[in-house]
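Colleagues,

Please find the record for the two-part complex below.
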Amino acid sequence: AQTVTQSQPEMSVQEAETVTLSCTYDTSESDYYLFWYKQPPSRQMILVIRQEAYKQQNATENRFSVNFQKAAKSFSLKISDSQLGDAAMYFCAYAGTASKLTFGTGTRLQVTL
Amino acid sequence: EPEVTQTPSHQVTQMGQEVILRCVPISNHLYFYWYRQILGQKVEFLVSFYNNEISEKSEIFDDQFSVERPDGSNFTLKIRSTKLEDSAMYFCASSEPTGVNQPQHFGDGTRLSIL
């Protein structure tokens, strides 16, 4: 079975600074997708960024980028120029041949002035 | 932008009662999912649904749970006899028909409180 591990329960970053959230996963599949979802206090799950495992190039989406290390099974999220609105719970998620998402336990990100 | 909508936003039910959680997926999506999140815990997969049948279900999705797509727009999750441990946030999600692992779009969730 696939597992997703987020080892940082909480992180804090100052506004305008950069922060990196860590995620590791375990799988025996060769073809899969990885996601970062954001869950603000409103509780909605919002897709931040998506990475296909067969792509070597790291995905980027405006201020959000990933560092995907397939051999190490690592998938970290970098948030540049952090904004107050980035404060939320961030979940790393895996989807393999079955389309269901397997989530990590989440990292709560605080953004300070 | 199209959204997944869930109703009600909050449901309070007595233990042992049946509850139906409703979802309207994005209109051209064909893959549907239910997840739950117990307070303070991670989001857990319950069931996936495609072509009018269950594609996969988790160990959580026992005989007390069922899903249905009664018409062309709604996707429901029924819990027949609720237990205290069913208290959680329930999220519906849908994705496009262009193959598996398209991004899943989530609704705002239904908070289910069992008394």
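The mean pLDDT of chain A is 93.

Comments are welcome before we finalize the supplementary table.
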